[in-house]
Structures are given as structure tokens and as C-alpha cells.
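[stage:ingest] chain + small molecule (iron/sulfur cluster)
[stage:ingest] validated
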Amino acid sequence: MNLTKQTIETLKEQYLSDTRPWVVTYSGGKDSTAVLHLVITMLQELHNEGKDNKYCYVVSSDTTVEMPIIEKYTKTKLDEIDKFAKNSDLKLSCHTLEPKIEDSFFTLMLGLGYPAPTSTFRWCTERLKINPATVFLQGLVNKHQSILMLLGVRTDESMARATSIESRVLNHRGLSVHDSIPNAYVLSPIKYWTTEDVWTYLGKNPFPWGDHSYMMSLYDKGSSEGDCNIALNPDSPSCGKTRFGCWVCTVVEKDRSMEGMLQNGEEWMQPLWEYREKIYNYRNDTTKRYTRRRNGASGAGAFLMEVRRELLEALLEAEKQVNINYHKMKKNDSDYNKNEKIKIIRDEEIELIQIKWNGDGDISNHAYQIAQKFDRLLDKLISTELRAELESFDEDDFNIDLFERIYELESYRKNISNRYGVINDIEKRVVDFYKGEFREIN
Ligand code: SF4
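[stage:predict] done
[stage:export] C-alpha cells:
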């Protein structure tokens, strides 16, 4: 029996052994695509025999800061798979797991001023990947008592991966227990496949739901290590060192995947590369950050308000440039759609950023002012009630902008009971403001 047939037979045995629903993790990469392809082939066979008696969930993580080219590819594939499953009457559906809007990368970095992540302050992984996956998987476990997750991990990817896979304790059916989700079991059906086996299988077995040649071209263009799934895949490489990680990732010094894409015909994404470099450099520049943390502890704190404004404007400018570049470069492609709009930051995120800024003393709705320069959120008021009221006083001696600067300073420190240094900071702020050298402090 050849490897493919043997793997499908093993899958069938596992499928028919219990009532646990299956969860296939899908990243769009070759390994998870191979597993999904095998599972769908098996489901088709069992369906024809009237034996497909339980459900299969295909889940994919979308951090909402995926490289636009990857995001589009994954979304297109999931739509195709969903449609195919429906038309073929298979018990299978696709689910994209996204972080809550209040946990999104831009809400936290631009709204609250979280410095772009480092390996020691990696605030993003849990919020963008682990939590959405945990909520979904836990929900399935609660509903069905137990689940079986199918992963596309292989021992020949690297020594570290082989050690991690081999160290798992397996039960008599070859299943291991998931690290963090109780009652979730894990099966790695292509564990001992070689890279060549995977490519041969994908090359010889056209997908019933669509073409995968584009995936191969993405693999050629990107570089770095394997797929990243974290909670979805406990054996995935450490977050930030993955083949196609978040395009904003500053945990790595250089984004090699993006670099590979830019050098291989996807130069339209260059503004995103530049933006990542900017936040990487700003994170390491203490003049861009408060000198205290929000809890009052000394040490580099959040990004300053003026820096957050600059970064929001730079992001919207990058989004604009990416769209211009994309349409210029792709207009002769066969699948070109002139109405396609690449969104780098969503309106809901800008609205939440504005709410966070209001909490940090912004009385002029600066996020909306910036958005409106780019024809976004045009219906939003560019002043708060407080600012409008202050303007109505019509006092020549009262400088609202200076008031706002002091108000921002007080707002940043509102949870700090220790008032040490506040008067000095306010005095400095007033003097700098009138000297025209305004720079935010503390
Ligand atoms: S890839 Fe980078 S930015 Fe994305 S979650 Fe992982 S560490 Fe954070």
C-alpha cells in the first residue's frame, strides 16, 4: 500500500473509532494543506459509503495583521473549501479565528501605546493567536465533551520539531493530549512524511476545491521557518520565527518572509516593510516613550501620545501607498479586480483607538482628524464635548491646546497615587509649549 493510501486508511480507523468531532488546523501552508486534503479525501470516501457520521471543523488563525497577500490567499482557499464541502454534502465547515477588536495589534499599540513587541515583552501572541483559538476549541470541547485535533507537523522539519513531536506521550491509538485544552487530543497523520512526500502528494493530487499552484509560488517567495499556529498547533516553532508571521512582527530583527516577497515580485508591499522598520526603531528609542509605565514604575513606558498620532498617520499613509502600488503593479493580471481595496487597519479599530485616546486626555478627537485626512470615518466629530465647551468660553487668555497637553499628562498618570514630580512635569510642559519646543514628558 502506498503512503497516501496507508495514511487515509489510518485516518478512517481513527474517524470510526469514536464520536469526537475533528478539528483540522489550516494555515495555508503545504503541511496543513496536505492534511486537509487527506481528510477531505477520506470524508468523501466515507460519505459515499454512508459512514461519515461526525463533524469536521477546519480552523484557521487570522491575527488581522497577516501579510495582505497571505490573508487574501487563505481567505480565498477557505471560501473555496467551504463551498466545495457544501456542494458535496460533506460534514465540514471552515472557521477563521480572529482576536477581539480590543485585543487587536493596532488597538493596543496605537490606542494604548504598547511598544512594538520584543522577545521579553511579547504581549501579542496570547491576544492575537492563543486566546481566539482557546475560546473556539474550549467551546467545542464544552459542546462535545472532547475533540480530536489534526495537525500538519512532521519530524523531518527540524531537529527541534522532531524532538518536540517524539517527546509526546501517545495513548494506545497514537493520540497525545493537548498541552492547554483539557479533553482535546492531538493526531499528527503526516508525522513521518518527508518534505518530498508532501510536495509529491500535493503535485500528484489536484485539489477538488481549487488550484494550489499559487501556494507553491508563495513558498518560493517567502522564506524562514515553518507555519505558526501556537494554540492550534502546540508543536509549531516559537511565534515570531515562522514562515509567514504577522507583517508588523518586531520580535524578529528582520522580517525575512516580507523581504523574500519584496525581492520576488511583490514590491507593492514595500510601505508595510518600512512601517515595520519604523515601529522597530521607535520601540528602541526611549525619546518616543513615556519615562514611566502606567503603574508609575520607572522605565520606558507607553509610546507618547504625539508618537501614537504620528504612527496612526504613517499607517494610513502606508495603506494608501500599498493600494496605489498594488493597482499599478497588478492591473495586467488575469484575476485583477479594480475595485479591490486592501485594508490595513479597520474603521472599528480607529474608533476604539479614539476611545483609548480620549481616556488618555485627547479632547480633540485626533484619531478621527487623522482618519479624515484619508477619507475615512468622515461622519465622526473632530472635537469632544469638552473641547467644544471650552471653545465657547471665548477667553483670549485661555489656551485650549496647552490645556489639552496638561490634561493628557494628568490622564496618563491618573492611576498613579504617587504625585512625585507632577508639578515639575507640568511646569516643564508649560514652558516648552510657550517656547515652541513642546515635547511630551513622563
Ligand atoms: S508573529 Fe510576531 S507579532 Fe505576530 S503574534 Fe507572533 S510574536 Fe506577535
